[in-house]
Specification:
Helices cover 38% and strands 23% of the residues. It has 176 residues and is α/β, with parallel strands linked by helices. It is globular. The protein binds S-adenosylmethionine.
Length: 176
């Protein structure tokens, strides 16, 4: 069980973000071969960390990679990320989260990490679109809970599905 007193120790030990440490502890030691998704991947900091520290069979990496790189809208962050995760079983979906949603089966994910567009509308939409992709006993979670737009979107989403939002620092998570 992660408490305020041992949280730092856990993060140090696992090198993982809080929501994923909590997910790991929620899954228990017997749950292996996880299937997950990250919405918003960028150069793969979090993707690499998840792949290193969770027992992942398949990770869907969803990013439109279109943040205005002048010469090649895809190459820079995508190539960096690809190099980092090359030895793992990942599938890139170079699309918006909305476009990629039909490429993920319903109830197929143990976890979904939401970290793409942080505006209120987009964050809420990502939660609504991807929650059905998470299996019962899984976790939907994400980053930047310190942003008002994210906090509001996640709070309203949780209210709509009658679930409690857990949060710590930048991370939030909801158990399904
Ligand atoms: C904050 S970065 C992700 C960081 C990453 N999760 C990490 O922690 O290492 C946000 C990423 O989301 C992507 N993004 C923003 N809006 C998106 C959308 N609607 N669909 C897909 N990707 C999007 C951007 O291209 C950017 O790479």
């Amino acid at each position: 069980m992660i408490t305020k007193d041992n949280l730092e120790e856990h993060i140090k030990e696992f090198g993982l973000r809080t929501s994923l440490i909590e997910a790991k502890s929620y899954f228990g030691n017997n749950k292996k071969d996880l299937i997950g998704a990250e919405l918003g991947v960028d150069v793969g900091n979090n993707a690499e960390s998840m792949l290193k520290h969770l027992d992942i069979k398949l990770l869907h990496l969803i990013d439109s990679y279109d943040r205005g790189h002048l010469y090649d809208p895809v190459k820079l962050p995508y190539e960096k990320c690809k190099e980092r995760v090359d030895n793992y079983n990942v599938v890139f979906h170079i699309k918006t989260t909305k476009e990629a949603v039909n490429e993920i089966d319903d109830s197929s994910l143990d976890f979904c990490y939401v970290d793409a567009d942080h505006s209120y509308d987009a964050c809420l939409e990502d939660c609504v679109l991807y929650y059905p992709k998470v299996m019962s006993g899984g976790v939907i979670c994400g980053h930047d809970y310190n942003m008002d737009s994210v906090k509001k979107a996640v709070g309203e989403f949780a209210l709509g599905i009658e679930k409690e939002v857990n949060f710590d620092g930048m991370d939030w998570w909801i158990f399904k």
